[in-house]
Amino acid sequence: DAGITQSPRHKVTETGTPVTLRCHQTENHRYMYWYRQDPGHGLRLIHYSYGVKDTDKGEVSDGYSVSRSKTEDFLLTLESATSSQTSVYFCAIGGPGHSYEQYFGPGTRLTVT
Amino acid sequence: GQQVMQIPQYQHVQEGEDFTTYCNSSTTLSNIQWYKQRPGGHPVFLIQLVKSGEVKKQKRLTFQFGEAKKNSSLHITATQTTDVGTYFCAGIEGGSEKLVFGKGTKLTVNP
């Protein structure tokens, strides 16, 4: 597996609290992605980054923000968590410049109560 | 925007039977990829198809990309219990930086 780690792996939080998920890579990939996976919806892109401090929105970006201050780290923040954001979150690296294939981290299971 | 439809959503087979999942895009794709996700795991890249009409094989798995580059299929011959998981297709439109995933086909195999 590619050198991608996600932290935390599991988190339970209350509605209205801020939450930050971290993705760390050791592969020096330029592109990094955040997806959420929900039953019946497959994988949906939240945000992605094409370089340090360069990010763009995906199809389900509302309620989420991202930051990338270093090549190896891509942070996903839920400013005020809602129950609809209960999901499994996957980070991925790859994309343009690497034959477009993507490699996924192990995922973070987030529960918002 | 671009949509990728995948059918069936679920497929139950007896070990040894064949399995096929189909993927259709609303737009012409520059390439299509297939991923496998084992229960409790993360998606793992299987293969990428780029050329119109392309066919690639990986042991018992056969991948096809349609002539119009809008559809694709994955066929597994003589399924085994190790094939259990969810298979996703994902397509890229020309010039895009983003993969659009189908919703996946969940395969279960009865021994």
Strand content of chain B: over 45%
**Rounded Rg of chain A:** 13 Å
The biggest chain-chain interface is: A-B, 26 and 21 residues
Biggest β-sheet description of chain B: 6 strands, mixed
- What is the helix tally of chain A? 0
Oligomer, anyone?
A: heterodimer
How much of the sequence of chain A is in beta strands? over 45%
Would you tell me the structural class of the helices and strands of chain A?
mainly beta
| Weakly predicted, low-confidence segments of chain B | none
Low-pLDDT stretches of chain A are none
String of helices and strands of chain B: EEEEEEEEEEE
Helical region count of chain B? 0
How would you describe what is shown here?
Chain A starts with a strand and ends with a strand. In chain A, the strands form 2 sheets. In chain A, strands 2, 4, 5, 6, 9, 10 and 11 form a 7-stranded mixed β-sheet that branches. In chain A, strands 1-3-8-7 form a 4-stranded antiparallel β-sheet, with no helix packed on it. Chain A has no helices and 11 strands. In chain A, 36% of the residues are buried. By secondary structure, chain B is mainly β. In chain B, the strands form 2 sheets. In chain B, strands 2, 4, 5, 9, 10 and 11 form a 6-stranded mixed β-sheet that branches. In chain B, strands 1-3-8-7-6 form a 5-stranded antiparallel β-sheet, with no helix packed on it. Chain B is globular, with a radius of gyration of 13 Å.
Which keywords apply here?
heterodimer, A: 113 residues, mainly beta, seven-stranded mixed β-sheet, four-stranded antiparallel β-sheet, globular, B: 111 residues, six-stranded mixed β-sheet, five-stranded antiparallel β-sheet, 11 strands, 0% helix
List the helices and strands and how they pair.
The complex is a heterodimer of chains A (113) and B (111).
Chain A: E1 4-7, E2 10-13, E3 19-25, E4 32-38, E5 42-51, E6 54-57, E7 64-70, E8 73-78, E9 87-94, E10 102-104, E11 108-112
Parallel strand pairs in A: 2-11
Antiparallel strand pairs in A: 1-3, 3-8, 4-5, 4-9, 5-6, 7-8, 9-10, 9-11
Chain B: E1 4-7, E2 10-14, E3 19-25, E4 31-37, E5 44-49, E6 55-58, E7 61-65, E8 71-76, E9 85-92, E10 100-101, E11 105-110
Parallel strand pairs in B: 2-11
Antiparallel strand pairs in B: 1-3, 3-8, 4-5, 4-9, 6-7, 7-8, 9-10, 9-11
